[in-house]
Amino acid sequence: MDKTHHANSPWETFWKENPVGFNATMVQSTLFFAKNLAHELPIQADDRILDIGCGPGYLIDDLKGKCAHIHGTDISEKYIAICSEKYATEPEITLSVSKAYDYGHYEKIIVEQRINRVIMLSVLQYYQNKADVRRLILSLKETAAKQKFSCLLADIIPVKHSAIDDILSIIKHAIKKGYTLKFVRFLMYAIFSDYRKMKKNGLLQLDELFFMDLAKEENLQIEVIKNLTLHTSRYSILINF
Fold this sequence. Notes:
Order of helices and strands: HHEHEHEHEHEHHHHEE
Strand content: 15-25%
Low-confidence stretches: none
Structural class: alpha/beta
Number of strands: 7
Strand order of the largest sheet: 3-2-1-4-5-7-6
Number of helices: 10
């Protein structure tokens, strides 16, 4: 398995620029996910977690103190700089900048940090195609021969997904939690920022059947989990390697 990174995704530059317009909605969606994660797949005190695509550390904020170790990695140097400042006095939290599709980097972290849980929240939609997702999963399978772990691929967009479903889910939550104004600002950002231009490149959509077929081919133990994330039409995949 090729452990090097592949051709750059059109989204890579966008996320490296630390798009702060997403922060308010990212905070709320991450809190929603963390709450459901605690109920469906509780974090244990001895867990050692790798957060791939950690951004400015919103999931780390919730998980710290609940487990033995967290390593956050992201392609954005700016996001990792934010995390480095926040967690400077927290020895159980380590950080790194990673290139997109740098499976070798993930393997190094998993093995050296003795990771037993990998989480990728709202990341796969920015992959270029099914082949890249397949390479990711096969590389993780190879890594599991050295260090056993589970991997949660959360917030996957299904085929024929409607963006209206996402908006309605967030509006309902925004009204309930009282951040409607922040969500309106986010929508304005999404409409007039580079995000809209980038979205023309598409967000990767994957049906559950893709993962089921891969599981059969590679003898993987997978579980489809619904309602872990704020977007009610999306789903998550848990793989126990």
